[in-house]
Design brief:
The complex is a heterodimer of chains A (415) and B (182). Chain A is mainly β. Chain A is built from 7 helices and 25 strands. At the A-B interface, helix 1, helix 2, helix 3, helix 4 and helix 6 of A face helix 6, helix 7, helix 8 and helix 9 of B.
Amino acid sequence: MDLLQCSQKLRGKRKRRRSMSLNNLRDGLLLEILLHLPLQSVFQCKCVSNRWCSLISTPYFTRRYVSHLHTNLQPFTLLFECKDDQSITRVLATNSEEPEVKSLAAYVHRQSEHLWLEASCNDLLLWRAKDDGEPSSMTVYYVMNPITRQCIALPPITLPYHRSWIQAGLICSYDYNKKQLSYSVVLIPYFHDKLREFKVFIFSSNTREWSESMVLCPEGFELTHFAFCAVPYKSLLFWCSNSGRLLGIDPYNTRCCRSFEQPIGWELDKETDCFGVCRGCLRICQISMFYTRFSSILRIWELKDYDNEGGGKWYLEHEVSVNQLVSKKSPWLTEHVQQKYPLPLVLAFHPNDGDILYLAIELKVLLCNLRSKTVEVFCDIPHDPDTWNEKCNIINFVLPSWPTPIPFAPLQNGA
Amino acid sequence: MSNQSESPNPTSSSNKITLKTSDNEVFEVEEAVAMKFCTVKQYFDDENNNNVTSGTSTTLIPLPNVESHPLAILITYCKKHLEIKANNADNKKEMEIDMEHYEREFLKNVMPQELTELILAANYLNFKEALDFFCRAVASAIQNKSVEYVRKFFGLESDFKPGEEEKLREEFAWSFEGVDED
């Protein structure tokens, strides 16, 4: 559509009428127009003039823009990094057609192989610079917003463990009125269940320093190698043990932890298959074999009635026999899940839709609807099948209705 | 009154309301149409409350902030809006499709300068659907366009000091990827 040329042609014909440029609209009406733009265009419009820049930079604009979008349709992206000795494959599986996603995908793929994805919180990612160093060498972490390309390097830290024995978590909050980002990074070394307390390393944006704290360990809690990424939830960072127990750490007060036993009906000798947040509640998933029916059962529990006074109880949300799942589009997939004891890899919960689960089978991401009991191929995982070991790092990345700004200048090219 | 504004065929509604624009033109419109303009409706309701005996067919409402040109366009848009709504009273989806189709055709005959006065008029008349529609029209004309195009479209010049714009462009470099050509 080229309204501009058209109008210039017509300008002469309508001399009688005084024409008024759109620039005569006052701020309130200009705002009503800008609210309809996609995020990328809004940010570009900051470069139009001083007036536009200050209008778009107000907290009021951000609030209006965020509430203008349908938050329940918030697009999100699963980001995972499959690592083996030779290579890193980063995969983005997304439910969005937004233009940001394309440039996000390109940007994440461009990130150096010397960076490892460690954790996420909303739209921020935590990366770690990979080096082949000894336990005593320095480690650098980066907090990055892959949409705006803003990135900040945290001060280097020397850790007394080999880094593959450390798990990281990121938690952040942004105050739009004060335009202030607060974030914390928490590092926990893996440990077995005999510890009574353990040491954590915490970086806080308030102090801009790393500090060490002791955390009292709930009896029998262990955090072993292949546990899940830490999940930020209601100002705590939650870790899930392989046996389905949760430990929530407050980075600002490590004496103040929350722990939850595994749900009733949990199979103790089976591992946790997924841990995350859906519709504002923590969720946990376990697939167990059901020998008498030659099947495997997928169960999902949700932690309801959570509050800061100690409330929170597991409820069974879904119980589905994996070999009941049917694919309408791919007959091979139906066949695959209907074999004896099918064991798909559970990648993630959908952040807003409680019936949707993302699975992986045979280098394909699947979208599974637990209510309609259907499963369909969502996208391919472009990893070498010979080195695919299912030990990938899965990060939920929620595309924001407004990107979380990181203070300080953007970094030129990643890290 | 209220059942008339929901009348299935707005063109047949009997009561007329007279609107007088800032350039002294007089428009006689069906009540159902006029009632979509909340400012008019408010005036009309106040008048009726103050003077119960006054005949509605002779009401004349002055619109000192609206010229005849945008008002004529808004009346056409409003009539069609009501008509589409009435034709698809029990099918919301059909209504949306028809409306979308009509709006697309409608925009082909609207110039950017007209958009300014249309937005101002729709805003003054408090005609929400039209205001939203024209704002969306402007947004879709400038989305994914270059900053220079947006300035031209809005008829404004950059007022940044030397270097300021470059700095902003650097800061928001990500937002400049994949912009359409002018």
